[in-house]
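Researcher: Can you fold this with flavin-adenine dinucleotide in place?
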Amino acid sequence: MRVISPSFEILRELDHGSMARRIEFCGRVCYKSEEKISDDSAGPFITNILKRGHNSVAEMAVLTIKVTADTQSYINHFYELVPRYLVIDRLDKATLLITGSVRGFRELFMDHPAVKMVKGITAVLAGRYPLFFDDLRPRSGWLPQAGIALEKVPLTEVETLDAGLMARHRFLAVKFITNRAVTHEIVRHRPCSYLQESQRYCRYDKDQFGSEVTFIKPMFFDENSEEYKLWARAMVETESLYFELLKTASPQAARTVLPNSCKTEIIVFASLLQWRHIFKLRTSTAAEPSMRELMIPLSDKFKVIFPAVFPA
Ligand SMILES: Cc1cc2nc3c(=O)[nH]c(=O)nc-3n(C[C@H](O)[C@H](O)[C@H](O)COP(=O)(O)OP(=O)(O)OC[C@H]3O[C@@H](n4cnc5c(N)ncnc54)[C@H](O)[C@@H]3O)c2cc1C
């Protein structure tokens, strides 16, 4: 068995690549198949993922657009839909600032294909990002809608919005390597998107995992203490039982013996507003100590990167 300390990485470099690349990178965390990423692997990976219904992968890339409608009723009708997974702010009477994930925009069209604003937005996005919308193309094709104009807002411009708008429209991904007790708590934050290493697809007896189970060092016990020795003994026994089960059972069946201490990887993708909420709850003295072990240094980094949203 292997014992490692928990860690995190803010995935800022993903913000500067294509949406397809970031979706593939995040999606492959589930299968731990990052070594399969190549110059042309994103397209087939994404098409296959969407076909299989592994939809949360399509939440891992957002884009921000400014939509202008020359008729008030188009905007009113759009608001009446109450789109749940889009962040929408009205910049002036005729202009909306909208941030949404690939999934958010896809499902907006799937749920409301006849609404003028929705048709107008999707027609432009589908022309620009066919990979994400081709399977939804109507028989008549993607028809631009008169009276509706759309402009993509670059990330550099999102970062110049006032702090309130930036907190809502700037999304950021963080990859955590931690134990499954901590990730079970993290995923309780509902307005975020998550992708996590799957114990159904990953077989830890394979070479790729060093043919061993990796556990996260518990911060509760000193390494020389009796408690730590007891914990380590339990992990050794668990690993051996897991490998024994894998001789006849599938990983999803064998994983039933794996404990909370098992190492996992999770990508959390959220707006700065949601990160602020997470830090408030998860750095407080009431929070679980292994959670604080990650969230306190992470929140310090956010204060340096986005001081307007996370004042020191
Ligand atoms: C110290 C501590 C102890 C905890 N103990 C337990 C425990 O013993 N058992 C347990 O089950 N959980 C426990 N939790 C989890 C906790 O109850 C929340 O589920 C978790 O912290 C997510 O935070 P949240 O509910 O504020 O909102 P999030 O899910 O992060 O959502 C962000 C915001 O969106 C809004 N929102 C999202 N969904 C809804 C909704 N359905 N209705 C209304 N508003 C919504 C709210 O304004 C919310 O503040 C604990 C959390 C902490 C920090």
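Model: Folded with flavin-adenine dinucleotide in place. The chain is about 40% helix and 20% strand.
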